[in-house]
Design goal:
This protein has about 140 residues and is mainly alpha-helical. It has one domain: Rossmann fold, CATH 3.40.50. It is built from seven helices and three strands. It has a three-stranded parallel sheet, sandwiched between helices. Strand 2, helix 4 and strand 3 form a beta-alpha-beta unit. The longest helix is centred in the last third of the chain and has 21 residues. It is globular. It comes from Populus alba x Populus x berolinensis. InterPro entries: UDP-glycosyltransf_plant, UDP_glucos_trans. Belongs to the UDP-glycosyltransferase family.
Length: about 140
């Protein structure tokens, strides 16, 4: 699916995986400062637990609702803006990634994401709200 010679041209600048990436390991790597996400809920939870802010780029199903929640309610993501034909330009991708990394709004999102990571850790610890709720359910 990639253009002829793409892997050779980009081998010094990036990594292309031919299978699923170890998503949790990637999100928890110290060099990851943000993540462009399709807004699937599993990824959202993994990103929050890793303290990684998002650029929200939903594709289908509940992902568009998740974007609204992430951007407007939780303020843990910047939205990827689509054109009227539902395409996203490379300039838009660049603007949103730079916005997440360099803007004042991006700074606030990163701070809120770290606060949510701390809250998630507390909920998952012994006696935390997630552990207590699961115990009650069982």
């Amino acid at each position: 699916m990639l253009p002829e010679g793409f892997l050779d041209r980009t081998k010094e600048r990036g990594l292309v995986l031919k299978s699923l990436a170890p998503q949790v390991a990637v999100l928890n790597h110290p060099s990851v400062g943000g993540f462009v996400s399709h807004c699937g809920w599993n990824l959202v939870l993994e990103a929050v637990c890793a303290g990684v802010p998002l650029v929200a780029w939903p594709l289908y199903a509940e992902q568009r609702v998740n974007r609204i929640f992430l951007v407007e309610e939780m303020k843990l993501a910047l939205p990827m803006n689509e054109s009227d034909d539902r395409f996203v330009s490379s300039a838009e991708v660049e603007e949103r990634v730079l916005g997440l990394m360099e803007s004042e709004e991006g700074k606030l999102i990163r701070e809120r994401t770290i606060a949510m990571k701390i809250a998630a850790e507390a909920a998952l610890n012994e006696g935390g709200s997630s552990r207590v709720a699961l115990s009650k359910l069982v």
